[in-house]
Amino acid sequence: MLIRRAPDIRSSEITPESLYFGRREFIAAASAAALDLAAPAAARATPRPRADDDKPNSYEDITHYNNYYEFGTDKEDPAKYAGTLRTSPWKVEIGGLCEKPGKYDLDDLLRGQTIEERVYRHRCVEAWSMVIPWNGFSLRNLIARFQPTSRAKFVEFTTLYDPAEMPQAGDVLPWPYVEGLRMDEAMHPLTMVVTGLYGRPLPNQNGAPLRVHVPWKYGFKSAKSLVRIRFVESQPANTWNVVAPNEYGFYANVNPNVDHPRWSQARERRIGEFFRRPTLMFNGYGDQVASLYAGMDLRRNF
Questions:
Q1: Does position 10 have pLDDT exceeding 70, yes or no?
Q2: Which of 72, 78, 159, 196 can bridge 66 by disulfide, Cβ–Cβ 3.0-4.6 Å?
Q3: Which residues are bridge partners to 201 per DSSP?
Q4: Given 2.60.120.10, 3.30.365.10, 3.90.1480.10, 3.90.420.10, which CATH number is that of 51-293?
């Protein structure tokens, strides 16, 4: 069988979105039925990534309304300027408290991973949201490969910063951009390493070639264009929490009851829609992730 890499596929061969979703829904339904018949009860009880019932945003929406401040602060700037980002060759440094540190080529990181589609809500702290069909795999699959030690309590992610490729960045934030997750958050099956969307390679403006997505958190937790992953014992000093600790907490769980100091988070506007809708606790994923925060004050730990 001849397997072609995405750059070798002509745009005319890409399935139109309407057909893509019809096919996807048919396959998903058939697969779900087969799994429910074949899997034992214990396996069926295992949390699975949930497909959102809402219609996904268009490819145009998803790739032309972005936050990626290294390429400018306007939502349209990343699509305009991210073409300067070179995503090949690409290496990611793995370090900290793990048994297999080193610098790994992207192809090596992806080798052996099964790429799947997940339709997730993406909720931005500025009270807008999208529904995005990401392609990728669970972050925990990658973490397990590097064997973090028992002392590793957090995972720290660092985004590329290269002034030559990101001349729009300026001094908006202290670069490079850094984010972090508690280890149990990173190991949750919903937490995703994203390699593409709509079945196509991940565009530069969306965080190519490799990013994280954590669907129950605000979008700034989902670090883009990863160049370093470290396993650490103490909570990482993530960028937005350093810049504005009264506005951006470390956890950044979607909580409609905790307002941003400058606007309400109780309602959100889905890109492409006129009216706002109520914001869901944990972005609608509470049944899968609320147990991670049992006993925590989610107003204090925002």
A1: no
A2: 78
A3: 196
A4: 3.90.420.10
